[in-house]
Design a protein that fits this description.
The protein has helices at 9-43, 48-69, 83-89, 93-104, 112-119, 123-129, 137-140, 169-172, 180-190, 211-220, 239-242, 250-262, 283-286; strands at 162-163, 221-222, 232-233, 290-291. The protein is mainly alpha-helical and 293 residues long. Keywords: DNA-binding.
Length: 293
């Protein structure tokens, strides 16, 4: 070990010189370099105007980014605002409920002013969302009213109506919705019965006639000379009697008789609707041929 720590005079001088050099360099690093760096900082000048412009540009970019992140609002009809849509627009629950209550009355909002009257939203919110309101064209751009002839809509009395059993196809064509095709079909179906219709309700059996067209026909025509029919007592009728009636087949007649036995007789014709498979939509026609005693 002694041989490792024994140095010559020249070696000791070199070690001493190396230690001194290290100390000097450390001193330069800790004292001289910070002073020089401080002088450089002091000499740095800042252009305030350029800094403001740069900061303004950054702020504008931030604003653009924030606006881009916000959900876009597309034009919409305010009559169909849902709970979610109203909340996203900034409406309160009470304001949304007022609109929904108004719509439940089958009423429509047709202007910005009416929307505020119904919902009672603030002016500031209205100004923010009203530019996106889109009402139907017939509301925003109503067409000028043409000169329309006013017709007397008073329903005709029984005496004023024409007899449906004697009406010709040409007369029936005057009814809106009844052309040559349907008028001929009505007359042809009526003539399948000896004596014509028993009641207006038999128009339902004319294939292709809608309830709306039938209503228009009965506004102008009605059965004044009904066909005479001998009604069948439902509490005594046999299956063979029931199958002679329109819309009653053998299976239905069998079920009607069976139900009659279980009920110990029908108390009213309405009880027939409870028979399995009974055509309820044809009840008014079927009961033209039945009686209850």
């Amino acid at each position: 070990m002694k041989s490792h720590f024994t140095f010559s005079k020249e070696q000791r001088n070199g070690i001493f010189l190396l230690i001194l050099l290290i100390i000097i360099l450390q001193g330069v690093y800790f004292f001289v370099v910070p002073l020089t760096a401080g002088n450089d900082v002091k000499e740095l000048s800042v252009n305030r105007e350029e800094l403001k412009k740069f900061q303004k540009e950054i702020d504008s970019l931030k604003q653009v980014e924030l606006e881009a992140r916000q959900p876009k609002i597309y034009p919409f009809n305010p009559n169909y605002i849902t709970d979610y849509k109203g909340a996203s627009l900034g409406m309160s629950n009470e304001e949304i409920d007022r609109l929904h209550a108004f719509r439940k009355q089958d009423k429509w909002v047709n202007s910005t002013e009416e929307f505020q009257q119904v919902t009672k939203i603030s002016d500031s919110l209205l100004n923010a969302i009203s530019p996106y309101f889109k009402f139907p064209d017939w509301v925003t751009n109503p067409k000028p009213k043409a000169n329309v002839m006013v017709y007397n809509n008073t329903p005709k009395t029984f005496a004023q109506k024409q007899d449906l059993n004697t009406a010709t196809a040409k007369q029936l064509q005057k009814v809106n919705g009844v052309g040559a095709y349907y008028s001929e079909r009505i007359v042809k179906f009526r003539n399948t019965f000896s004596g014509g219709f028993i009641a207006d309700v038999q128009l339902q059996d004319v294939y292709g006639l809608t309830p709306e067209v039938i209503e228009k026909i009965t506004e102008q025509f009605t059965v004044k000379t009904p066909r005479t029919v001998k009604k069948i007592n439902i509490n005594e009728a046999a299956i063979e009697d029931l199958v002679t009636i329109q819309h009653i087949d053998y299976d239905l007649a069998h079920d009607m008789v069976e139900q009659r036995q279980l009920r110990d007789g029908y108390k009213s014709l309405d009880e027939l609707k409870k028979v399995n498979g009974f055509p309820v939509n044809k009840f008014e026609i079927i009961k033209l041929y039945l009686s209850i005693e």
